Amino acid sequence: MLASRYTISVVYPRRGLPLPLELVNTQFALGGQLRDGMQTPGDLAEWLEANAAEFGDLCLPAPSEALLRRFQSLRAALRGIFGSRANDQQPPADALATLNTVLAAAPRFSRLDWDARGPRVRSIDLAEDPETPVLAAVARSALEVIGSGTEAKVGQCRAPGCLLFFLREARRKNWCSAACGNRARVARHYLRLHGKP
Questions:
Q1: Among 68, 109, 131, 165, which residue carries the largest CB count within 10 Å?
Q2: Are 45 and 7 in contact (CB under 8 A)?
């Protein structure tokens, strides 16, 4: 278990979303204060462990300061892209460039293996280091989330003080959770009664 060697400083609000949304949601607000759930290699270890099932058969690398910076850079790019997508705007060019650089760093091909249990398709990443395939897995998942033709769309929570992203499956869903929806309704009610926030 990766996380056992590290002290975790902040726990982020895990929602069981696709990897790129889980990554951007490591920046969140708690009690009106901005929090960062990925400040140390230990935080990254905890995040990798919490989301290990989403990485399939990839070998998760040991977190380092360099890998942490790479994940933070990808997170900033994805936050810009998802924020633009949620608001029907063009994403920043530097965010797109960062995402595409991560995608290009780990060329991938599929391979068919066959054993006693039957056929199995594996994806092979041709990166020179063990870190790049993990980053590329998050980036590829972002492409699936952004480019999917389904009804699901990335949304950014509209509750006061919330920074989280979510998949908007219902047409009118504006909040990441029921708690945020309640907080937004209470804030609107207060505003109607008192005329100020």
A1: 165
A2: no
CATH classification at residue 95:
1.10.3300.10
Q: How many angstroms separate the CA atoms of 165 and 157, rounded?
A: 6
Cα–Cα nearest to 16, from 177, 147, 135: 177
pLDDT in tens, 133-179: 999 999 999 998 887 655 568 888 888 888 899 888 766 678 788 78
> Based on the structure, what is the number of domains in the chain?
1
Dist CA 141 CA 151 (whole Å): 17
d(CA 73, CA 197): 34
Cα distance between residue 68 and residue 49, in whole Å:
14
DSSP the chain: -GGGGS------------HHHHHHTTEEEETTEEEES-SSHHHHHHHHHHTGGGGTTPPPPPP-HHHHHHHHHHHHHHHHHHHHHHTT-PPPHHHHHHHHHHHHHS-EEEEEEEETTEEEEEEEE--SSSSHHHHHHHHHHHHHHHH--SS-EEEE--STT---EEEE-STT---SSHHHHHHHHHHHHHHHHHS--
> Which residues span the domain enclosing 85?
2-194
- For 151, other C-beta atoms within 10 Å of its C-beta total 10
